[in-house]
């Protein structure tokens, strides 16, 4: 018999322990994965606030951003640290990490976070994954997480890609506005980064942006 494990996301104290459990899972698997999630959560929350999001909705977006890649913990670490090109089989597993992340947040009762987690690799032009959503059909949280995620990856690099400086990373986001990303989200991220509005909060997983 299945049981509904979802909890009221309007109660931050009730949900924070489950968010913390998944964040700790990411940290135990690979500290870099956890740090990436924290940076993306911080930036995504500031971008969303610039776009008008407030209160509980902003907090939910921050949590979804924190956990957007937690599904990567279900596969061997070597898959994510491989310096060369991925095989077709490996690429399939990479693309499945969004469904794995969605499954983990749902299993932990965080159902309201699932859309932002599942769809953060959709593209504005409909060419992304897993569901090839496009434009406004992509959940708002996922659109914000997408730009924050890619900006952080560009600035910090990967085993297969060198890091870019801030100017080059922002230029790449601008180049992809309207194709890969929601142009409004790109504009808000650029304004956030260049305007100095970001603040590194002591507890980015739990506190709303005020």
From TrEMBL:
Statement: the UniProt record of this protein carries the keyword NAD: no
A GO molecular-function descriptor: transferase activity
The entry's keywords: Transferase
Lineage: Bacteria, Thermotogati, Deinococcota, Deinococci, Deinococcales
HD-GYP domain boundaries: 11-205
This protein's name: Putative nucleotidyltransferase with HDIG domain
Domain HD: 33-154
Organism: Deinococcus yavapaiensis KR-236
Highest taxon of the lineage: Bacteria
């Amino acid at each position: 018999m299945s049981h509904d494990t979802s909890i009221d996301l309007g109660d931050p104290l009730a949900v924070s322990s489950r968010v913390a459990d998944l964040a700790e899972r990411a940290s135990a698997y690979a500290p870099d994965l956890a740090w990436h999630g924290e940076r993306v959560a911080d930036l995504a929350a500031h971008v969303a606030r610039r776009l008008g999001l407030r209160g509980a909705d902003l907090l939910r977006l921050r949590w979804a951003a924190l956990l957007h890649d937690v599904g990567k913990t279900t596969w061997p670490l070597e898959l994510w640290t491989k310096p060369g090109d991925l095989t077709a089989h490996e690429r399939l597993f990479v693309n499945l990490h969004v469904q794995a992340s969605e499954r983990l947040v749902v299993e932990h009762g965080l159902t309201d976070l699932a859309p932002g987690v599942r769809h953060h690799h959709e593209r504005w032009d409909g060419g992304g994954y897993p569901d090839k959503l496009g434009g406004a059909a992509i959940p708002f949280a996922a659109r914000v997480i997408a730009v924050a995620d890619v900006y952080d990856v560009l600035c910090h690099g990967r085993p297969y890609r060198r890091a870019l400086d801030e100017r080059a990373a922002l230029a790449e986001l601008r180049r992809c506005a309207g194709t890969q990303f929601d142009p409004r989200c790109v504009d808000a991220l650029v304004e956030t980064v260049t305007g100095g509005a970001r603040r590194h909060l002591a507890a980015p997983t739990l506190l709303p942006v005020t």
